[in-house]
Design goal:
This protein has 181 residues and is an alpha+beta fold. It is built from five helices and seven strands; from the N terminus they run βααβββαβαββα. 35% of the residues lie in helices and 26% in strands.
Length: 181
């Protein structure tokens, strides 16, 4: 069983940074995985925005993560990675859907993300989730993709792995029935 939760920086950042170094930086055409300055700046980058992780328990190490920012009415997906031993379980999709639900709950009307040229796995995932290519940036060798949330009458059907459903259903139920007043 796996759960999606907010990141605990003190205990999760080391594994998140390891995933960035081993899974994301090698795909980048603009960042060298051995660039120590970039690596030192990662905790500062993670401090801004929101990071959700997928893990086996509330305090176990992350098996994947998504990092995002809210900028006005736009939800910007910054980073997404799943540990190679845990791919094929639809956890990337689960994290994206969780991030979208978070953005919608904060009145975001669209999602925006960037992916590197040649990352066909990311392109397929984002396309299946309804994102469309918006721009190409040849100098950086990456693309942007966008998705309008306002055009979705309801949240898209989400087929999470069965082990994730109880946790996600509880969190969504609490979020829908939470009243701050």
């Amino acid at each position: 069983m796996a759960i999606i939760r907010h990141s605990h920086p003190r205990t999760d950042n080391a594994e998140i940074i390891h995933l960035i170094q081993t899974e994301l930086m090698p795909l980048s055409h603009t960042i060298d995985p051995r660039d120590h300055r970039q690596i030192r700046e990662l905790p500062l980058r993670l401090r801004d925005g929101v990071t959700f992780v997928i893990s086996e328990t509330r305090w176990s190490k992350p098996l994947g993560f998504v990092h995002l920012y809210l900028t006005g009415d736009t939800l910007l997906f910054d980073l997404l990675a799943i540990h190679p031993d845990h791919r094929g379980k639809q956890w990337g999709k689960a994290l994206m859907m969780y991030g979208e639900a978070y953005g919608r709950s904060r009145q975001c009307t669209k999602g925006l993300l960037y992916f590197d040229e040649g990352n066909h796995t990311a392109y397929r995932l984002y396309s299946k989730l309804g994102y469309a290519v918006a721009s190409h940036f040849p100098a950086m060798r990456c693309y942007s993709m966008e998705k309008s949330f306002s055009s979705c009458a309801e949240e898209p059907a989400f087929h999470a792995p069965m082990s994730l459903l109880p946790n996600l259903q509880k969190r969504l139920y609490r979020k829908q029935h939470w009243n701050p007043h």
